[in-house]
Amino acid sequence: MIIIIVGGAYPLDTLMIVGADKLGSIPKRLQEAGFEDISHVSGRKVKMVQKSIPEHVDLILILTDFINHNITDKLKKKAKEQNVPVCYAKRSWCSIYKTLVNSEEVCRKCPAIKSMSK
What we know:
The chain is an alpha/beta fold. It has helices spanning about 25-30, 70-80, 95-100, 105-110, 110-115; strands spanning about 1-5, 15-20, 35-40, 60-65, 85-90. Helix content is about 35%, strand content about 20%.
């Protein structure tokens, strides 16, 4: 599943989440954390390997429990080529929250996420 968050008032404007079929309350929680526009794309389809990372993405969050492993490897390589940081979490808000709060890239750029950890 991919969530792309576009826009926002922070230097970390866009987030791409890859993995899982449904997000449940995760988009709402991410909006509360300061991300604005969220879209979703599944990470199970093999054809995803051929797609590129949109230029406006600042961070990729891979949900490890629902994703094709080949896609994970390809995404990691493409993210490195585009200098986009990658974080990994399970599909639970607790895991996502911990990953975002503990990511140096996120904490450095996103005051909303950083303030949630206090």
